[in-house]
Amino acid sequence: MDFELVKSFLEKSSSGVSSEDIDSMPFRFFEPMIMSGLKVDLIERGRVLCSMKVPPRLLNVGNSLHGGATAALVDVVGSSVIMTMDSVTTTGVSVEINVSYLDAAFVGDEIEIEAKALRVGKAVAVVSVEFRKKKTGKIIAQGRHTKYLAVSSKL
Amino acid sequence: MDFELVKSFLEKSSSGVSSEDIDSMPFRFFEPMIMSGLKVDLIERGRVLCSMKVPPRLLNVGNSLHGGATAALVDVVGSSVIMTMDSVTTTGVSVEINVSYLDAAFVGDEIEIEAKALRVGKAVAVVSVEFRKKKTGKIIAQGRHTKYLAVSSKL
Amino acid sequence: MDFELVKSFLEKSSSGVSSEDIDSMPFRFFEPMIMSGLKVDLIERGRVLCSMKVPPRLLNVGNSLHGGATAALVDVVGSSVIMTMDSVTTTGVSVEINVSYLDAAFVGDEIEIEAKALRVGKAVAVVSVEFRKKKTGKIIAQGRHTKYLAVSSKL
Amino acid sequence: MDFELVKSFLEKSSSGVSSEDIDSMPFRFFEPMIMSGLKVDLIERGRVLCSMKVPPRLLNVGNSLHGGATAALVDVVGSSVIMTMDSVTTTGVSVEINVSYLDAAFVGDEIEIEAKALRVGKAVAVVSVEFRKKKTGKIIAQGRHTKYLAVSSKL
């Protein structure tokens, strides 16, 4: 194995955007970059349903939705569902995130993202997040997100 | 709970970059956006050590490294370590990613990311990825990444 | 901290059964020990629903269903759902198991365990397993189980 | 697929021990059943090293250490390492357990189990647990265990 290949894979910046432009991007650009285009279809206590069209910017080298972007969406959409519970005043800090990848979603595919609160206690919240193809209902990914809510006290 | 708050949290785009600019970003912009600034410090068979300075663009609302960005780095740095094994010709497709978050890393903090191959078989590879503060060695996050390698055949 | 306490916690054998009796237990006693009392309520393609009454032998020191027993049930009930898919001739080998614990189940509580196939491909299968209280529907635990199916070839 | 096969797999009790004998086993028999034979080799602050010889009773149908037993050992050995930190008075309740399975361990194989505290805070503890073959150092399994410690207050 040519270690130079590994190095160039990790230090690449071939995106049509210069690394200077990337390095000067604003504070907290990560969330807008992930979430732009996300639409909320339904909010109820303990459940949020969103949809989005897979955008070109979130593709991986295989031209399907990047697994890292999927994990980031588990984080943010999972956190939002905690806000729907009337007992909470914070979405807390992340303790653990896990995602299983089940199918590929390609550019332009309409996907829906459903987050459900499995438990929202005083200190610990656990939510599930499922990604499906809107047309077929086929599951693309399923994850869980654990958060610690009592952040004013020490984790 | 005001559901409008949840909706505005999910559909926000307040980043100093217009949603038009985000929507017109190039194919596969996600990886450069995550990885710009990543330096490879060491590559050996089954092990990759990188470092980076936490950049403003990857912060969350608490101004620490976004958990979704951490998960995305588990994906890409974890995949790179598979490339260091002489038996493989692909980094495969993701089956599962999980991350535990242990401490916050703030803007400018030097962090190191160490990926180790736990197993690279003919079909399934599992790697661990640990994030530490460079100065103190304190663990920020630890995750695992499972990939399916025999992608020419059907998953 | 008294390290002797830790040692005695790990090397204890106070169960009313002598360690000689435990050590002479038959091959593969683990599964019957976990599964005795499990009833199958429904089997369909991609879905298995079971129920059981939490038995005294599977309790932890807090007198609720042991998390390790729950994880073992994710394994076996999760594997069984793979057998309901007509394309498979094996339940494969475990690649990953994860479980979130959401509520306690006490001795005599009727619980139901629902396993669903999220994906059963030629090589990789992923199932979800959910534990609920039968009376209230409240979720006790939720997990996922990833298996590699093509075990005749090399993992 | 013959659903009767699935049913008999789940409701089987062929272990040389009658289901009556299993059903009359004492309270909390699960832990001694899993842990009998476990030896503590080293305890220090934040780290516990144990060893055991894979016993016949903990085998799966493939005659290797059962994945459910491995997960249960992640739970108990992972919990024990929390007891080595001087700040804690409880090992808390389980929030999440995950395990990746990397290699098979057969009856009589000497294995070592190393648990390390990744973080033990006031409320949340996360530990890693690694299983290795004693002779070769080869990793059999690696997992993480998250616990909530402030159990006197409400989870």
Most extensive chain-chain interface? A-B, 73 and 74 residues
Q: Helix fraction of chain A?
A: 10-25%
What does the largest sheet of chain A look like? 6 strands, antiparallel
Number of strands of chain A: 6
Structural class determined from secondary elements of chain A: alpha+beta
Amino-to-carboxy terminus distance of chain A:
43 Å
As a percent range, the share of strand residues of chain A is 25-35%
Mean pLDDT of chain A: 93
Radius of gyration of chain A (CA) equals 17 Å
Total helical segments of chain A: 4
Structure in words:
Chains A, B, C, D: Belongs to the thioesterase PaaI family. Chains A, B, C, D: Keywords: Hydrolase. Chains A, B, C, D: This is Thioesterase domain-containing protein. Chains A, B, C, D: Pfam families: 4HBT. The structure is a homotetramer of 155-residue chains. By secondary structure, chain A is an alpha+beta fold. The first copy, chain A, is built from four helices and six strands. Chain A has helices at residues 3-11, 19-23, 30-35, 67-82, and strands spanning 39-44, 47-53, 93-101, 110-120, 124-133, 139-148. In chain A, strands 1-2-4-5-6-3 form a six-stranded antiparallel β-sheet, with helices on one face. The longest helix of chain A has 16 residues, at 67-82. Chain A is globular. Chains in contact: A-B, A-C, A-D, B-C, B-D, C-D. At the A-B interface, helix 1, helix 2, helix 3, strand 1 and helix 4 of A face helix 1, helix 2, helix 3, strand 1 and helix 4 of B. Strand 3 (93-101) of chain C pairs antiparallel with strand 3 of chain D, so a sheet runs across the interface.
